Amino acid sequence: MDAHSAHTAHSHCVAPVFCTIIPPHLLDHLSRSDNPALYEPARRTLEQDALQRTRRRITTVRTTAGTASAAAGEDGEKKPRRTISDAGHSEKLPGEKVRSEGEKPVEDASVNRAYTGLGATFDLYLAAFGRYSIDGAGMPLDATVHYGRDYGNAFWDGERMVFGDGDGEVFRDFTLPVDVIGHELTHGVTQHTANLAYFGQPGALNESVSDVFGSLIKQYGLGQTADAADWLIGDGLFTEAVEGAALRSMKAPGTAYDDDVLGKDPQPATMKDYVHTGSDNGGVHINSGIPNHAFYRLATELGGHAWERAGRIWYDTLTSGGLSPDADFAAFAGATVAAANERYGAGSEEEEAVTKAWSQVGVTPAEDGGGQKGTAA
After folding, report:
1. Angstrom distance (rounded) from CA 178 to CA 176
2. pTM for the model
3. Which of 74, 81, 148, 225 lies 20 to 30 A from 338 at CA?
4. Which residues contact 163 (CB under 8 A, 6 or more apart)?
């Protein structure tokens, strides 16, 4: 376990962040529809999300280190410990336990997809980065399916994954895209490492990191190279009624969807189009397109499997212990350059590719390596 993970694995307080895969601006578009089949589920989802955010603000998330022997099992092998519960369309958590680690698949496809998605996330972090579950110390992976009635979101509440079934009009079941599962669980990884604040540029970085590793989890499971990957987040989540491919595109931010009801994907690809807004915690789901695109540029520049070098640099940055929770884009960029330098050497292909990627999205890396806030160009 890296030094920062070891530090954060001990009991301490971290930011009580409530993170959803569907951004508020998209649900807001739906809530203003004239069609009750669209606006009623969207309004209920927004109300539930607001309630959950309030709960997170008044509840401090505490992390506690488990013993290695208990977490790893009697033979010392590092394995996931998954528990899937069913909320039965209620809004009570965790719900009824329906599948535990090692048990056979059940008839409910949502349960099985959640179980598999948790495992895929565990596998990527352990195989590629040597990270033992979300907290680096064998944390159990818990999830709840069938949350709420036509609930159009999935979220990480600081302790577990929660999936809605979608409304069937715009959104399908949220257990369908494995990158959505990986995205939300990565909020837990960030929570236990850099603990990036969930507002403005630090919040956009928090969202971007989840998109990056969510995409890597999908690519790892498919054995894809960076060139072969679609770099879409939430592909397959929209129903056929929606004019759109996915929630976000790392390859081409701003092009994921363009729909009469949902509007057009608002994500910028570069700082030139940075969106200044007070909604969505300062645009965390919008401006995340900029660091997303920087990672895409890096991964395709380096080629091969994106988790091997590009992903390693991002992971090193996240777990270095030197990244401030209020780091902006420039500070994070500086930290990635420093991470590439430390792992691959000064003047290496990797370090040059990192600097080039940030330049292509209009961000000048801070020279201090990301320990303090910098200024994005």
Report:
1. 6
2. 0.90
3. 225
4. 110, 114, 143, 144, 145, 146, 147, 154, 173, 174, 175
Q: Around Cβ 66, how many Cβ atoms within 10 Å?
A: 16
DSSP string, 320-365: SS-S-TT--HHHHHHHHHHHHHHHH-TT-HHHHHHHHHHHHTT---
Helices (H), the chain: 3-9, 24-31, 36-58, 68-72, 109-129, 178-192, 200-222, 280-283, 289-302, 310-319, 329-344, 349-360
Whole-angstrom CA distances from 30 to 36, 152, 268 are 10, 11, 21
Q: What is the DSSP code string of 234-264?
A: STT-B-TTSSBS-SEESSSTT-SBEETTTEE
**If you ran DSSP here, which 8-state letter would residue 32 be given?**
T
pLDDT tens string, the chain, 377 residues long: the values are: 444 443 333 334 445 567 899 999 999 999 999 999 999 999 999 998 888 766 655 443 444 333 333 445 555 789 999 999 999 999 999 999 999 999 999 999 999 999 999 999 999 999 999 999 999 999 999 999 999 999 999 999 888 999 999 999 999 999 999 999 999 999 999 999 999 999 999 999 999 999 999 999 999 999 999 999 999 999 999 999 999 999 999 999 999 999 999 999 999 999 999 999 999 999 999 999 999 999 999 999 999 999 999 999 999 999 999 999 999 999 999 999 999 999 999 999 999 999 999 999 999 999 865 443 333 43
Q: Annotated active-site positions, please? A: 184, 285
